[in-house]
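re: that chain from earlier
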Amino acid sequence: MSSRTRWVWGSLVGVGGLIGAVFVILQFLGPKVEVVEVSRRLIVQDVVVSGRVLPRSRIPIGSLVPGLVTQVAVKEGDHVNLGDLLVKLDDAEAQAGLKLAKAGLDQARARLRQLQHVTSPVARGLHRQADANLEFARMTYERLSAMAKQDGVPPAQLDEAKRTLAIAQSQHDTTETQAVSAGPKGADHKLSVAAYAQAAATVAQAEVRVAQSKIVALVPAVVLTRSVEPGEIIQPGRPLLVLSRDGKTLLSAQLDEKHLAALRLSQPARASADAFGKDSFVATVSYIAPSVDPQRGTVEVRFDVPTTPEYLRPDMTVSINIEVGRRQDAVVVPTDAVLDLGSASPWVWLLRDRHVEKRSVQLGLRGGGFVEILSGLGEHDRLVLPAGSSLKLGRRVRATIRTGS
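^ sequence. v structure.
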């Protein structure tokens, strides 16, 4: 073997020894890992869900009576106020019925006035006259009866006086009945009053029929849909228009039931319409459904929108970011430092004296790539990130602080 060959082999042996030494040292020092430090910071936990703009209420508008449409006063997108005309039907027949009913009311009113001012006074006068005639006939009969006892009056004359008294009594009773009947508590008066009330009700009914020929807005609203045109013959119950009542705009979303424990009324949220993604607006939780949809495992949540953007439309798709928790000075670690994050027993690799140890932790809020530590760690503790490394309990490691955490 030449000296050159021996030199080559010697160099190879030396390099191999050096590599072996380095390998032994690296094995002793352990793998190189990234570590992060437990810190304090603001943490906000959000739940992001897709929802829709829900009008305060949808009001289908129809007619209570059949008829021919003569006018449709609004179109889709129009805003209407209380009492504004929406749809008009042909009212010729209803107007004729109203005139007839008013004529009947005038007739009933005239009959009542006639009873009060003519019939009743005449009946009272006749009764007073009959009362006077009865008194005179009674006195005449009593006088003649006294004379008859002394044989001073023929029997025929006494019989005539008795007959006259009976006639006067009959006339008195008849006129008394007529006067009472025509009086304020009598049957004739009650019948006249009832006829007048019936005629007035007929007029009111006819006025309702005339009013039903004009369909008007009962609340301030926006016209969403229009499905009727002049010239159509409509039937009761058919939707002609759909209105969206004025008021606060509501958002509706279906949240997974796993978020139910974190939801509270009046929680703040921020929403944005998919069609206007660069703009966002404030919303607050105003309603949480008392039951869960058993088919989808979701719960309906509604949101008030205090200030509605002009571009927002009913049924528009929106993205809603709900703030379900906020802690100003929370102990936090990056989310990727926690293992078994979704389980009931999360844990971390804690770096202590260049060795790793397993530490169970209790978690709180999560958001922004961080998770709150409620117990198990203290501020400035260092955690080993498990990604890309095969860690074992008690293993020595070479730590490199991760920047930007």
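The mean pLDDT is 83.
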